Amino acid sequence: MAITKDHELHRRRFGRNLGLGLSLGAFVVIVFGLTIVKIEKGESMEGFDHGYRPSMVQEQDGGARQ
């Protein structure tokens, strides 16, 4: 005879916890995958940090001023 019996409430709670854990795990895998893809692409990794970014500067014509 078991010392404690599993109640139906425990089984339902375990099912919900398992579902939530799998959902969070899937979210982490998706974010990690997107991060790896972005790094491997090698595109510009500049962030918006309120600083000077050379890639944002428009090139000016070399002509004379009017």
Describe this structure in words.
By secondary structure, the chain is an all-alpha fold. It has one domain. 52% of the residues lie in helices and 0% in strands. It has one helix spanning 8-41. It is rod-shaped. This is Cytochrome C oxidase assembly protein.
H/E series, N to C? H
Secondary structure tally: strands: 0
Tell me the overall shape: rod-shaped
The proportion of residues forming helix, as a percent range, comes to 40-55%
Q: Tell me the major beta sheet.
A: none
- The total number of structural domains is 1
Regarding quaternary structure, how should these chains be classified?
single chain
Q: What count of helical segments does DSSP give? A: 1
Give start-end ranges of low-pLDDT stretches.
none
Q: Please, what is the average pLDDT?
A: 79
> Per DSSP, what share of the residues sits in E-state strands of 2 or more residues?
under 5%
Distance from N terminus to C terminus (CA atoms, Å) equals 98 Å
Q: Whole-number radius of gyration?
A: 27 Å
- Which secondary-structure class do the elements indicate? mainly alpha
Fold topology:
Layout: H1 8-41
